[in-house]
Amino acid sequence: MKTALTVLLAAAALAVPTAAPRPAPAPPPPVARTVSAWLPWWNTDVAYDDALRHADQLHTVSPFWYTAASGTDISGETGAGEQRIIDGLHAKGIKVVPTVTEVPDAASMTALMNDPARRTAHVDALMKVVASRPYDGLDLDYERMTETEDADLREQVRIGYNALTSELCTRLHALAKQCVITVMPRTSTTGHAYDYARLGTVADRLRIMGYNLHDALDKPGPLSSVAWYEEFLTYATATVPRARLEVALPAYGWDWTVGSTARAKHVTSQEAEVLRRRVGAEYVFDTASGTPHFSYTDTDRKRHEVWYQDANGSAAHLAVLARFGVTGSGLWALGFEDTKLWDTLALHGQGGAR
Length: 354
Fold this sequence. Notes:
Number of strands: 16
CATH superfamily: Glycosidases
Strand content: 15-25%
CATH architecture: Alpha-Beta Barrel
Helix content: 25-40%
Shape: globular
Strand order of the largest sheet: 4-3-6-7-8-9-10-16-1-2-5
């Protein structure tokens, strides 16, 4: 009896069609990396750890490592070229594109850049930096050369810089390396030494420093503002393809002593918030600029004003980028920022992986 029942049950099981196996779920799409950031040499370990924690959002890190003291003398800061840093970033899929700044002033740089032989010698020196490590390119952050009120000299800087960057980018591209150029915002009063239209055709990315609207020698005020972003992005998006634009956000602030002509003290966004809490100052958010600030009196009874940036303010400025269709953002600098900023960047990330 038991054997017959077993046969009947087996037959019944064969008669019932089995459900087709469900296909394995598709893997989630990769997280879009929309952010580049500078790594300051004086805060290497903190900045490096910060980069690793947020590797899924970073496509490029630019260690602030090199300085051009002359046409052929390019020196490294403390820790420049540290292989541990390069390898660790590469292991996380992050490109390493070190930054080079310059020491010579406008007149000296004009003489160098507009002399074909000296210009090529300078490019040779820059290419030696690229070849010295497994770098993915170079970020040229030449600012001092633009500090002149002489319109004719500024025009010569513009012409020379166009020639320099064209030569450098051509040679970098021949090695499949990235050519990044960092510039000041182009407004009615600033950034005129940079030929955005030309630079935007030779560079892979044009990084606009979206900060220092008020600098350490100015009167107290916001480091950036919504209206200022709208002004320089109106010009930038009319002259440079949006895919090549990047706007670097500030992650720091200035602590001014009211009534003093002394240089304001630099504070990171984290330091500014710690200071605000320590002195018991009220958090005030300036909605017009999109910037937090506070005031306090020190132990010498001197009045201070601190303007800085945090995730709240960055959200207002990232919204401007979105309105202009700019998907690339940057950060000055790793290890400085409000920790909530990364969530804000993720919410406003509009672009794909670089």
